């Protein structure tokens, strides 16, 4: 899978790329029906070619723009790592491709900017999370979202408890040193760091180890509000919670030894937890919309929503999944003209435009089914 996040959104929308082609299609898991996916892509490419020619673009220019798409079926390694959907963004000098864990509907959109609404579920900040996989032998930090988990290289992160606490290689207990022992009458003896029975010593050493981990994580997690899920054997979990200074450790946990867990394993266990969080966030946001309805802090008129999104006034936007409203927006005058359900000429999908502008201005966007949208096809809670 490929990552499509806020940085990719900004890159695709930050410049005037001229004529933009956005292509979406469902794909099959790797190893199944690969030829069907290739054939579907060829058909989409033919559709894009017809639309470009109908817009008056010359054939040589059309061939040049679409050549990277035509070359894609000849890349076996690309098709070996398919996911549920494929999104392509093509313009003169631009070719971005994303294999995503979303069953995308087949579509080709030719416009003056790229369309991203089908990928909105990947841009939901509530779906982002960390997983900290730790044991006495291995420590790893992962960042995750809808598409998967990826390990983060953390400078200074302890490799394991033995090295971090200078454990003796033979005894595998805290490093000892020669020193005076009260009952040995001046003889050199062995003094271990730590007091109490073995259980208490082990707990104290674990706490020291975990504080070293916490110190290494601090520069990476500073000022973050992203929830972190702990993956560890059960008895380590409360000790790490006590040692950690990160205030956003999730209540939910992934118990068990994670030393040999892959990124896919951890994502498979963590994602149901995160999906439940996302459902709860959506329910809370919808309830807030209903509570504020009639106070001037909500809006469901597209003529007002698009300018508000452009000006950074939207806190939360709800967009009906699969819906389109075509028209034009003049950013200079803040005027919106709606042309209906089918595009004409250089019409833009105003639902897509409102979503993109909300995200670029750090608002939250929920792409939802009709029954989950408080006032379909689009509505918003305003910041002011």
Name the helicity range.
25-40%
Number of strands: 18
Radius of gyration: 27 Å
Shape assignment: globular
Task: Tally the structural domains.
Answer: 3
SSE ordering: HEHHHEEEEEEHEEHEHEHEHEEEEHEE
What is the average per-residue confidence, as pLDDT, rounded to a whole number?
88
Number of helices: 10
Largest sheet: number of strands, sense, barrel closure: 5 strands, mixed
Structural class: alpha+beta
Separation, N- and C-terminal Cα atoms: 38 Å
Please give a structural write-up:
With 384 residues, this protein is of the alpha+beta class. The protein has three domains: 1-115, Translation, Eukaryotic Peptide Chain Release Factor Subunit 1, Chain A (2-Layer Sandwich), CATH 3.30.960; 146-277, no CATH class; 293-384, Ribosomal protein L30/S12 (60s Ribosomal Protein L30, Chain: A, 2-Layer Sandwich). Helices cover 34% and strands 25% of the residues. It is built from ten helices and 18 strands. Helix 6 (198-221) crosses helix 7 (237-243) and helix 9 (302-310) runs parallel beside helix 10 (350-360). The two termini are 38 Å apart.
């Amino acid at each position: 899978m490929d990552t499509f996040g806020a940085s990719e959104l900004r890159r695709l929308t930050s410049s005037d790329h001229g004529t933009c082609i956005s292509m979406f299609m469902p794909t099959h898991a790797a190893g199944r029906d690969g030829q069907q996916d290739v054939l579907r892509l060829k058909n989409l490419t033919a559709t894009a070619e017809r639309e470009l020619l109908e817009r008056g673009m010359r054939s040589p220019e059309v061939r040049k723009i679409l050549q990277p798409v035509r070359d894609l079926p000849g890349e076996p390694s690309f098709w070996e790592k398919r996911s549920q959907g494929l999104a392509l963004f093509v313009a003169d000098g631009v070719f971005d491709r994303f294999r995503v864990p979303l069953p995308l509907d087949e579509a080709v959109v030719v416009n003056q900017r790229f369309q991203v609404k089908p990928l909105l579920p990947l841009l939901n900040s509530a779906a982002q999370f960390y997983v900290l996989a730790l044991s006495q032998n291995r420590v790893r930090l992962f960042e995750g979202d809808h598409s998967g988990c990826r390990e983060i290289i953390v400078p200074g992160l302890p490799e394991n408890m033995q090295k971090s606490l200078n454990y003796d290689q033979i005894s595998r207990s805290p490093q000892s040193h020669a020193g005076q022992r009260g009952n040995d009458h001046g003889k050199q003896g062995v003094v271990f760091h730590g007091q109490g029975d073995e259980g208490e010593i082990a707990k104290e050493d674990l706490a020291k180890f975990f504080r070293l981990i916490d110190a290494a994580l601090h520069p990476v997690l500073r000022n973050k509000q992203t929830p972190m899920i702990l993956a560890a054997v059960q008895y380590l979990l409360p000790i790490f919670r006590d040692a950690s200074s990160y205030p956003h450790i999730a209540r939910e946990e992934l118990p068990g030894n994670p030393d040999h867990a892959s990124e896919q394993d951890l994502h498979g266990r963590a994602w149901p937890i995160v999906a439940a969080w996302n459902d709860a966030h959506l329910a809370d946001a919808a309830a807030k919309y209903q509570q504020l309805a009639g106070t001037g802090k909500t809006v469901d008129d597209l003529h007002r929503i698009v300018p508000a999104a452009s000006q950074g006034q939207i806190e939360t936007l709800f967009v009906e999944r699969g819906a389109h409203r075509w028209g034009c927006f003049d950013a200079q005058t803040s005027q919106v003209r709606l042309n209906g359900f089918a595009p004409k000429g250089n019409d833009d999908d105003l639902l897509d435009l409102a979503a993109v502008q909300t995200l670029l201005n750090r608002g939250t966007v929920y792409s939802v089914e009709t029954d989950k949208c408080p006032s379909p096809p689009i509505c918003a809670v305003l910041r002011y």
